[in-house]
Amino acid sequence: MEHKTKIDAEDGKQDLVITREFDLPLDLLFKAYVEPELVEQWMGTKVVKLESKKHGSYQFITTDPKGNEHGFNGTIHEFVPDEKITRTFEMENTGFPIQLEFLEFQKLTDDTSRLVIHIVYKSVTDRDNMLKLPFSYGINMAHNRLQEILNKLK
Amino acid sequence: MNLRRDVFQAIAEPTRRAILLLLASQSMTAGAIAANFDTARPTVSRHLQILTECELLKQEQNGREIYYHINAQKMKEVADFIEPFRQMWDERFNKLEDVMKAYKSKK
Q: What confidence score (pLDDT) does residue B3 get?
């Protein structure tokens, strides 16, 4: 089955690539990363600061369903409209090291576009921990049981 | 539909897990499956419906009987630990697409 969003994460490497094709023209896709009100809407976060330019920085605060606030921030190193954003990303107070993100915005047709995000982590373990994060979040139990079933299937 | 939540919720329920375990080694009819549980037959049917809807089970017509069997492909997909990470991004990007389509039509 072909998915719209693809993750390439080779074993034993400290980076990964996220690829997604959008049913949106390139300029709209890029705008979604630049306009604070739009970022707030699709990321479900509060944008405290977003300076979309070289040497600019950004700061987001996201409130989880329990009402806890989580801070995210980073520095923008490269900013080329409709082409690329290179930035760092830090999840505050989590112990996860800062990561480096290369975002490439590509035009496919007049109405479609592609986003390729290459993320580099401090170590292989850090990358694997990030990959497992959404997975560990509340579904561990279900998965362990599932593994039992899969073992039986083999 | 939030597929991730639905699939994992489906697996989280003990009776549904028992059904998946039961079907791991064989295909069975709804009646035969229900016979393995103390639960009322309509409750078992509902569980089968949920498991079929999130594609963990497949139905196969064999004469007059409908047999349920496990969709191994889907089970493996769910078991892949990268899959929740992918779905998290997929949902996030779906949101981006929706927000930007709404933004475009407002202009």
A: 46
Q: Spell out which residues of chain A touch residue B83, defining contact as CB-CB under 8 Å.
A: 135
Residue B106 counted as domain residue: no
pLDDT of A66 reads 81
Domain that residue B60 falls in? 3-80
Q: Can you tell me the distance from the alpha carbon of B102 to that of B98, in angstroms, rounded to the nearest whole number?
A: 6
What is the 3-state secondary structure of A10-62? CCCCCEEEEEEEECCCHHHHHHCCCCHHHHHHHHCCEEEEECCCCCCEEEEEE
Q: Does the beta carbon of A48 lie under 8 angstroms from any beta carbon of chain B?
A: no
Query: How many domains would you assign to chain B?
Result: 1
Q: How many domains, chain A?
A: 1
Q: Which residues of A touch B12 (CB under 8 A)?
A: 139, 141-142
> Can you list the residues of chain A whose pLDDT is less than 70?
1-2, 134-154
Report chain B (107 residues): mean pLDDT per 10 consecutive residues: 59 84 87 92 93 91 92 76 82 94 86
Residue B30 lies in a domain: yes
Partner B contacted by A132 (CB < 8 A): yes
For the domain that residue A114 is a member of, what is the CATH number? 3.30.530.20
Residue B55's domain is classified under what CATH number?
1.10.10.10
State which residues form the domain around A52. Answer: 5-153
What does the block give as tokens for B79?
Answer: 């078991």
**Interface pTM (ipTM) of the complex?**
0.81
Residue from the list B84, B92, B100 with its beta carbon closest to the beta carbon of A24: B100
* Predicted pLDDT at A145: 56
Cross-strand partners of B21: none
